[in-house]
Amino acid sequence: MTPALHHETTFAVECRQVSKRYGQSQALHNLSLSLPQGCSIGILGPNGSGKSTLFRLLMGLTQPDSGHLAVLGRKPSWQTNRHIAYLPDRARWYGGDTVRDAFRYAERLLPGFSRDVALNLADIMEIPLGMKVAGMSRGQEARLMIMVCVARDVPLMILDEPFSGIDLLSRERIIECLIHQMSRREVTMLVSTHELHEAEPLFDHAVFLNRGELLLSGNADDLRAQHGSLERMMRSLYT
Ligand SMILES: Nc1ncnc2c1ncn2[C@@H]1O[C@H](COP(=O)(O)OP(=O)(O)OP(=O)(O)O)[C@@H](O)[C@H]1O
């Protein structure tokens, strides 16, 4: 377990009027958002709506042009990053020759990483420990990256399109595994995905972005009660 951050906040993430522009492209525009702790949150929206930009801001990988941002009650920094398991989009893992080496490497470098949990996940996700990382298929590599995040005992997980390139059955297995993790410990999970049909049961809360702006943020059960499913809600919001 990583040392606790001392914070009073009840929110995992708070954004106040956050804007971020890349050249001509307004990636986020006046985004104000408070995301609860201890639940699984879908960050949803079409291509280019600002999901990855929001995650990069939360990891301090880029800075907002204006506005205020807090993650786990603090400004994003290397200290807050110790408490976050982040799976970037277009992730690559080169920490060792085999899966077993990758876990050793993760144990040395990533706060809160448990090799025992990772070994158990590798078994569930059918990734042989002796498998060469360099020879993995896209889906196998994606599974390894998810395992490395899930095997960390940290208060916040940020998974940027964790299911892309993963086949349907593996995707369902990973989602089950994430739901199981959520039931076992107090963790907040932010997940962006275009695979809403399969990921729907994972979410307790949903945030819908469009062209860098917030369309809606709400409790998933309330939204399902009003619209039938998050997927249907998404269709009605964007068409
Ligand atoms: N490094 C960058 N340089 C230039 N433009 C960028 C950069 N990063 C993001 N953008 C632009 O900002 C906007 C938001 O991009 P972002 O990657 O945050 O969207 P997204 O919702 O994650 O999209 P996707 O679903 O396609 O992954 C897009 O118009 C994108 O082209």
From TrEMBL:
Keywords: ATP-binding, Nucleotide-binding. Residues 13-236 form the ABC transporter domain. GO terms for molecular function: ATP binding; ATP hydrolysis activity. This is ABC-2 type transport system ATP-binding protein. It comes from Alicyclobacillus hesperidum.
